[in-house]
Write a structure and sequence with these properties.
heterodimer; A: about 500 residues; alpha/beta; FAD/NAD(P)-binding domain; globular; B: about 400 residues; Elongation Factor Tu (Ef-tu), domain 3; Rossmann fold; Ubiquitin-like (UB roll); 6-stranded antiparallel beta sheet; 6-stranded parallel beta sheet
Chain lengths: ~500, ~400
């Protein structure tokens, strides 16, 4: 196709975190950029909503990879590159974990590597050395991972030069902890965060998990002052400041290809728009279903059908008419579990065996009016868990029944009274996420990062898996898995690819 | 054991597993709506609904109820389920003006399964939408609406077990729906309805709700008549004293209000004296905001009329907007199809970017997100121009 018809250098489909970052970076590089979003707001998960006198954070629990340190992975660096403000506030406790199963424990862990090691040593005397050894690995891994995600990655160099990296990269977090000799109870505590990556640690790639945990511990978790919506709007501003365009309420219903199978444009709101490059922030399943099947390589179709969808959630958002002090709530993040084993928690998740409750007022006292506070319950579920017996008529009752069960459980575990103080309540389920994100089954975490489909194999096979010319991907369904940092970082990766390809083509 | 005991070559078997899994997969990529959550989401929240007027009930020349059914001619088969208290945003095109109006659904939620919604329209003198509907809609008229919307619903984990419903005029409609929902088991609460009218003959649906109350002891109706004394009815206005008289003697109760703004202003003052916790007082949408200049924080010396440049997908159009008119109304009058639903500052569907210029947003209807305020986004339904402005508006769906 004649390039003269291509009005844009790049069209970015979907204004989730990945799409926002990639669009803003493309615009900054001087590319004529168009960002298309089906919803009337940017951000995807990174958003907020108002009910009465409360504004609720929709999704973010804590932003990791956000320190201003020299961490190569830093999300902050992307925002800095764009001149986009983040307004981050940090929290010094990582989490409180309450295991009321066998060998119960109730621990509060603090951020900062030394603080964390002290807390671990106090909880499991004698574990410090092995936990430290695990953490020390990360320095080597960082360098290797940067190489692996870089443009000139060569598997044999990776294999020979970065031996420890390959050892960690090829095994689960549990296997690596066993090899390093971390005592069992310490292992269980270190596994607390597993639901944030959606796969129990016996099947969770060690490199992936360790990198997330250490970024929380080392760099402190942070939250934006005015919810994630602030981060999303900050990126929209960067896009616009650099001459990029964004269109909301504009769903891409078709991806267009030329005779050689190269992507050349999209159909959005009935308009055909051509561009030199396309970046998809939407999951490959949706791209495949909106494309001429003959233009999609059979490998891409087989990969999409072989993959398992990642985790999603039931979220309960409560606005309470009493302050956290009045209610006796002390923690930002509380993980509540029946038993310490992630696999067991995963298998019995429908019995309420794992959930997280956040009180944003701990990090941001003024995040709700004086004399009030908010709670945010996160209950991990898998696509397919939502019962098909619940129809439109029963849906409200179903939502309230689930919410009631978890709120009452939380009251019992923490010994606090919440129910009489509910001034606002919103319950989101996979149906809600299916509505707003339009992902299959309302999946939030893209594809499950399970055994063979983890960050390492994804990175190694990236070129094979994503082979349609001029079409790049980013976001939670892409190679780095779920989470805000992964989405921003893959957005930056996609932008860099587009920028360098267009430079070469010139 | 040490890290060296883990084989780095294991990566090869992991890759082999992946290759095998991919090779042996069917290559079938399932349709999005074959996933149940997506299917249910589409059923609950269609982007719009194509309806047809099936029946008209005339309460008076100035008030009619319209029974709406799926418009089969336009391919509609089903209506979306709703919770009692929700509304439909009805889209209208009147003499070149594109606008929409929210109307509470007056029918029982269960009627949805019989493919019926009902809305009730009361003439607002000078109100172009109500006049247009009352004078033009006939049986067979095609109507486009939103999905059911709104938060004026009974929430069992939030609200008290008893709801004192306070209705004024056509504000009875969501309570009619709630009364049916209670009787039919879709909602689980007691409803004590204080229904304010001038005379009993003005109290539309009063007989019908009394009929529900006969068989459902959880619903109670009290007609409160301002201009008439009648046996079995209260006389006067809905005061704190009257609320107290009918409220449960012990325990909490929620107060739900739906009616004209004047009623909110009067009854809110009465409720204040009752010392009810804020969480137990719920209002239906405030409704269109008029006359912003009456507010103390409204700036001095604002020019009477401002130029508004509206950008939609990069295309610009300049219109004028009197400073006492919301940007949304000005766009509608100019025939610009702008998104909107609640028209009360709450739902955020009209959210637009203020590219330049200044607007006034009355605090009581400012439902914006914090970051929207930080970055210059507005809800045109509740924004009044103070200077010439440029706004970027998303395309209406």
């Amino acid at each position: 196709m004649n390039d003269a018809l291509k009005k844009y250098d790049v069209i970015v489909v979907g204004a989730g975190n990945g799409g926002l970052a990639s669009a803003a970076l493309c615009a900054k590089a001087g590319l004529k950029t168009l960002l298309l979003e089906k919803h009337n707001l940017p951000g995807g998960c990174a958003t907020s909503f108002v009910r009465g006198r409360f504004e609720f954070e929709a999704a973010l629990h804590e932003l990791c990879h956000s320190s201003t340190s020299e961490n190569a992975d830093s999300v902050t660096k992307i925002f800095e590159r764009l001149g986009a403000d983040m307004d981050l506030h940090s929290e010094d406790t990582l989490f409180r974990v309450i295991n009321r199963g066998e060998d119960p424990y109730d621990l509060t862990l603090h951020a900062g590597v030394d603080n964390f090691l002290n807390d671990m040593e106090a909880a499991v005397p004698g574990c410090r050395e092995s936990v430290k050894e695990l953490f020390d690995l990360m320095a080597v891994l960082d360098e290797a991972q940067e190489y692996m995600n870089g443009p000139s990655m060569n598997p044999s160099v990776l294999f020979n030069k970065y031996g420890d990296f390959m050892r960690v990269a090829a095994h689960s977090f549990d296997e690596v902890m066993d090899a390093v000799g971390v005592p069992e109870k310490a292992q269980r505590i270190l596994e607390t965060y597993w639901a944030y990556l959606g796969v129990p640690t016996d099947d969770m790639n060690a490199l992936h998990y360790l990198s997330m945990v250490l970024s929380y511990i080392g760099a402190y978790p942070t939250m934006p002052g005015h919810r994630s919506h602030y981060l999303s709007l900050s990126l929209v501003k960067a896009l616009q400041d650099h001459g990029g365009e964004v269109r909301f309420n504009t769903e891409v219903t078709r991806f267009l290809y030329d005779g050689d199978g190269a992507a050349i444009g999209v159909v959005a709101n009935g308009d055909v728009i051509y561009s030199k490059k396309i970046i998809s922030n939407i999951i490959p399943n949706n791209v495949i279903n909106r494309s001429d099947p003959e233009k999609i390589p059979s490998h891409a179709k087989k990969l999409a059908s072989a993959r398992k969808l990642g985790m999603t959630f039931v979220s309960v958002y409560l606005g309470l008419d009493a302050s956290m002090e009045e209610l006796g709530i002390k923690d930002y993040s509380v993980f509540i579990m029946n038993g310490s084993d992630p696999r067991e928690q995963f298998n019995t998740r429908k019995d309420g065996s794992i959930y997280v409750v956040n009180c944003l007022n701990k990090v941001l006292p003024e995040s709700s009016p004086k004399g009030t506070c908010t709670l945010f319950f996160t209950i991990p579920v898998m696509p397919g868990d939502f019962p098909e017996t619940v129809g439109a008529r029963d849906y409200k009752k179903y939502k309230n029944a689930v919410a009631e069960r978890y709120i009452k459980d939380y009251e019992k575990v923490l010994g606090v009274s919440v129910m009489p103080h509910i001034e606002e309540i919103v319950v989101a389920t996979p149906v809600t996420f299916a509505r707003y994100l339009a992902t299959p089954a309302g999946a939030i975490y893209g594809y499950a990062n399970e055994e063979w489909d983890n960050v390492v194999t994804r990175a190694m096979l990236e070129a094979v898996d994503y082979s349609i010319p001029n079409l790049h991907f980013c976001g939670g369904s892409y190679i780095r898995g779920d989470g805000y940092p992964s989405a921003y970082l893959t957005g930056a990766m996609a932008a860099d690819k587009v920028i360098s390809e267009l430079k070469e083509e010139k | 054991m040490s890290l060296n005991d883990l084989k780095r070559t294991d990566i090869a078997s992991m890759l082999a597993k992946r290759v095998k899994a991919v090779a042996s997969s069917s290559g079938e990529v399932k349709d999005l709506y074959s996933y149940y959550p997506n299917k249910l989401a589409a059923e609950l929240h269609p982007a719009y609904q194509e309806l047809v007027v099936e029946e008209i009930k005339e309460h008076s020349p100035d008030m009619k109820s319209y029974v709406l059914a799926p418009n089969k001619k336009r391919g509609a088969k089903k209506l979306a389920w709703f919770s009692a208290g929700q509304y439909l945003s009805i889209r209208l095109s009147i003499n070149g003006a594109k606008l929409c109006r929210p109307y509470s659904i007056a029918s029982s939620p269960a009627d949805t399964l019989k493919n019926r919604y009902m809305i009730t329209v009361k003439r607002v003198w000078g109100g172009i939408a109500s006049e247009y509907i009352l004078d033009n809609w006939t049986v067979g008229t095609s109507v486009t609406s939103s999905a059911p919307l709104g938060e004026f619903t009974y929430e069992p984990l939030r609200d008290a077990a008893t709801v004192i419903g306070i209705a004024g005029g056509s504000g009875i409609t969501p309570f009619r729906s709630l009364a049916y929902a209670i009787a039919e088991g879709d909602e689980d609460c007691e409803l004590i309805l204080l229904y304010g009218s001038r005379t009993l003959s003005d109290a539309v649906f009063s007989d019908e709700i009394a009929e529900i109350a006969k068989t459902c002891p959880r619903v109670k109706l009290v007609n409160v008549l301002s201009d008439e004394k009648k046996k079995g009815c209260e006389n006067g206005f809905i005061t704190a004293k009257l609320i107290k008289k009918y409220a449960p003697k012990e325990g909490d109760y929620s107060v739900f209000l739906c009616g004209p703004q004047a009623m909110y202003r009067f009854v809110d003052k009465e409720i204040e004296t009752l010392g009810i916790r804020r969480k137990f007082v719920r209002h239906e949408l405030f409704g269109e905001y008029f006359d912003p200049a009456k507010n103390e924080d409204y700036p001095k010396r604002v020019k009477k009329s401002c130029k508004v440049t509206v950008r939609i997908n990069g295309e610009e159009q300049t219109i004028t907007c009197p400073s006492d008119t919301s940007l949304l109304r000005a766009m509608e009058a100019a025939g610009i199809k702008a998104p909107s639903d609640c028209r009360s500052g709450r739902c955020g569907w009209c959210r637009s970017q203020l590219v330049s210029g200044k607007v006034y947003v009355p605090a009581e209807v400012d439902g914006r997100r914090l970051a929207d305020k930080d970055f210059g986004y507005i809800h045109p339904c509740c924004s009044f121009p103070l200077t010439d402005v440029v706004i970027d508006v998303p395309k209406a769906k």
